[in-house]
Design goal:
The protein is mainly alpha-helical and 343 residues long. Helices cover 51% and strands 6% of the residues. It is built from twelve helices and ten strands. A two-stranded antiparallel ribbon has the order 1-2. Helix 2 runs parallel beside helix 4 and helix 6 runs parallel beside helix 8. The longest helix is centred in the first third of the chain and has 18 residues.
């Protein structure tokens, strides 16, 4: 696996270049933050997961400060009903009253991750707990399968079992959707494969870890192996391209390959490994992570060695050399997860 193993060789500069007093910027022009594009709750939620794991592994004060910033952003983004606004201009004014369900799911995933981590400061946990409690009533109204998946993954981190009924209801709706669309050799939750695909099998495996119901395990492994067939044809990980996606019965879009897909596929395989103990899943996780370091369709590393930033993906011509928040944070989440298994 092509990787670096500690922060002495992998720089965190770009994380701090992309974060100001408000939160993490959404986009960058090459390695420079694009202030005109402002911020999103999506990115600050994932940045919170990154910051919590950085602080958990390295206990440096600068990472603890990031946790406070990203939680403060999500607290400001929260509506009274527990939903979240997403897009914010550089003037700190939100551009909408309510965001997508997917954004809601990512926010709850991040908040649960922060609350469940022992390294998270207690004052932060108190604030996060209130945000989670306010958000929970909205979970049962979700229609987006990915929003459901993110919520399931988030709630699976929490101990005590009081949210198990919510997890089961969301998982059952995904299972029903899977059974509806499953057809012959098509083992998927929809009649197309688009963005953040790995969250769906990952969520079903997370449910199995909590509830130990075999139907969730079956769907999780079956759909993960189907996704694997669509993304591992040449021995390396090649995510489904966002320029056309994959519609049932048609060819997979070749490009653009995006960082978030490598991250979430890595995490899905690590969940599969945690449940099964099968080393093949750990090997697949490492292969997915190696996408960042050049085990990909272009044999090009996406990591900027000067700053520790991550390029925005692989396009037909090579690399997209912008270094936006989604790519940056996705890399770091995957890095911190796989680092535990690197040796």
């Amino acid at each position: 696996m092509k990787t670096n193993n500690d922060l002495t060789t992998l720089k965190t500069n770009h994380i701090f270049q992309m974060t100001d007093d408000t939160g993490m910027f959404q986009h960058a022009i090459f390695g420079v933050p694009d202030l005109a594009e402002g911020y999103t709750s999506d990115d600050n939620a994932r940045a919170l997961i990154m910051a919590v794991n950085l602080y958990d592994q390295y206990r440096e004060n600068k990472f603890e400060k990031l946790i406070y910033k990203y939680v403060a952003f999500l607290n400001y983004a929260k509506n009274r009903d527990g939903t979240f606004r997403n897009f914010m201009g550089y003037n700190r004014e939100f551009l909408e009253e309510e965001s997508s369900e997917d954004c809601f799911g990512r926010c709850l995933w991040a908040l649960c991750c922060a609350f469940s981590n022992a390294a998270t400061p207690q004052n932060v946990k108190n604030s996060v707990e209130k945000l989670i409690e306010c958000a929970l009533p909205n979970c049962r109204k979700l229609g987006s399968p990915r929003a459901k998946a993110y919520v399931i993954i988030g709630l699976s981190y929490l101990e005590g079992g009081k949210n198990n009924s919510c997890i089961a209801k969301l998982a059952d709706s995904l299972a029903d959707q899977y059974d509806h669309y499953k057809d012959g050799d098509w083992h998927w939750f929809e009649d197309s494969m688009t963005y953040c695909n790995a969250t769906l099998p990952w969520a079903m495996l997370s449910v199995y870890r909590v509830l130990k119901e075999n139907c969730y395990q079956r769907i999780g492994f079956e759909s993960l192996r189907f996704l694997e067939k669509k993304t591992f044809g040449n021995g390396y990980f090649k995510p489904i391209g966002c320029n056309g996606w994959l519609e049932k019965g048609k060819e997979t879009a070749e490009y653009d390959e995006q960082s978030v897909e490598a991250c979430e596929m890595t995490l899905a395989y690590l969940e599969a490994y945690a449940i099964s103990g099968e080393k093949t899943f750990l090997d697949k996780a490492k292969t997915c992570f190696s996408w960042y370091y050049g085990d990909n369709s272009k044999n090009l590393s996406l990591i900027d060695v000067e700053t520790g930033g991550c390029y925005d993906g692989i396009i037909m011509e090579g690399l997209n050399l912008n270094q936006g928040a989604e790519s940056l944070v996705s890399f770091w989440i995957a890095y911190l997860a796989i680092k535990k298994y690197a040796n």
